[in-house]
Amino acid sequence: VQLQASGGGLVQVGGSLRLSCATSGFDFDRHDMGWYRRAPGNPREFVARVTNGGKINYLEAVKGRFTISRDNAKNTVYLQMNNLEPGDTAVYYCNAYRDNGDGGEFDAWGQGTLVTVSS
User: Fold this and answer.
1) pLDDT value at position 104?
2) Fewer CB within 10 Å, N- or C-terminus of the chain?
3) Phi/psi at 35 (nearest 5 deg)?
């Protein structure tokens, strides 16, 4: 199982970045895919999720600025981030999740990609 996040970098306030998470080793289209982030000194927090059925949820603070999408043909999930703010500075992690319904679950994480927003 591999989740390879990329696309982070240094950007000025108001700028944009597009994160990608290329995956392999599991049935991508059967899993919910999410993005989380961890800012320095803070716990990891949920950012966005797209379920295997296409339902989408966002952290309130990123609504209207971030867009999550998935390409099942490419086994890849994306996070388009616009109008970035200093508070968006964090390491961003992609996540693959599935409740197997038998008491077990699949929960895998990528290595993270750093986003730094300068003011």
Assistant:
1) 87
2) C
3) -120, 135
